[in-house]
Input
Amino acid sequence: MTTPTLIVEGLQTRFFTRAGVATAVDEVSFTVGRGQVMGLVGESGSGKSMTGYSMLGLVDAPGRVTAGKVLLTQRDGEVLDLLRLAPRALQAVRGNRVAMIFQDPMMTLNPVLRIDTQMIEAVRAHHRVSHRAARERAAAALAKVGIASPHERLLAYPHQFSGGMRQRVAIAIALLNEPDLIIADEPTTALDVTIQGQILAEMQALCRASGTALIWITHDLSVVAGLADTVSVMYAGRIVEQGSVAEVLERPRHPYTRGLIASAPSRNPRGRPLAQIPGMTPSLLALPPGCAFQARCARADAACCASPPLVRLPERQLRCFHPHAPAAPTTA
Output
């Protein structure tokens, strides 16, 4: 077992609106070891991105992190609770020891500044290095993500790049300071398959070589299967199943996890309609009592009106009163 870089315990984020209180992240807990990759998967609106924002103090009003711990162990052994840091101390950690790659690169890049200005500033904000050394580090980061002629491209503005190229620049900025933890929020969505494969391989190699922990937020199970060591499946703000990638994706036990995997086109026989999970994700303002998945689950009964406890099993954890048998096939 690798030394944990990140321990998240009981993370809870709520939005206090006029229509009521919405719990976007509900008692989320997980651990990411040094050099490990954890996939965080689920439908849109399940709370994946909000979990990442909550860890870094990026939740705007009327949202607020109301409970939990986010413990980051740095390479020097110092442990920081990110939720307890003062704003200035947290600012020193973000972009340095913890980096986030957003789905939309324009959330990362300033449209009126050249790429070199933005990348050099990101280095020198946290390290006492010369302008020239920071520039060389920026060029090396661009080369890592497959941008040709990196020294020349540093002189360009964001609007001179395509959407996919801007996303690669955003990924390069996250790699600049060799952080202890990277949170990647679907960063390869805008990239073509070839470049996506190159970046996934580069990110995996980085984690292995440098010991950087990586949380990869996505809805693409095929990416998780090839990239991650562990996977956590979210539904309506809660993690409903987590464990090793091989165990969870090959032998899912939670009905929601099985539904996600069965709906993947690659698993569907030719000529047969795609499998789908019936119904829709419930509103966070009107979650049913007990298991939030019960209205869409064929195995639900009266017991599901109570909140399912966390069940710890070999190789995985899950929240379900009626999990599937361990040897059940994934396409049944």
Remarks:
- The chain is about 30% helix and 25% strand.
